[in-house]
Amino acid sequence: MTDRDKTRGTERKILIVDDQRGIRVLLHDILEDAGYCPLQVGNGRQALEVIDRTSPDLVLLDMKIPGMDGLEVLNEIKTKSPGTKVVIMTAFDDSLIKQEAFKKGAVAHFSKPFDIQELLETVKKETPLIEEAGINRHQKR
Known about the structure:
It contains seven helices and five strands. The termini are far apart. By secondary structure, it is of the alpha/beta class.
């Protein structure tokens, strides 16, 4: 067992929901390198199954995915797991969908193509790593 395996239980789980495999793999690698435990699925039904099993801390949710649209998935996430934070991603600029998503509880929005560093900063802000949360708590005293 590696040191990384020993800490898996304390890592923050981030669920990536996107039908584009390349985006899922890219985000997975970036989040893993940053110390998160990324999970990835390609549609809304799979996302809801993973949420039931693993209770992720944050979901990166594409709004245009097969089966269920992003707003339906967001609504289900907030019904099943109200404390789970959701960041929405879109390949288009639809202010009505963004407004509806924020009403349903999304915490942030990114348009594709997105700035990886900006997305990572948002993930860190919304779901700080355990050790970072401890450091930040001590620094505020």
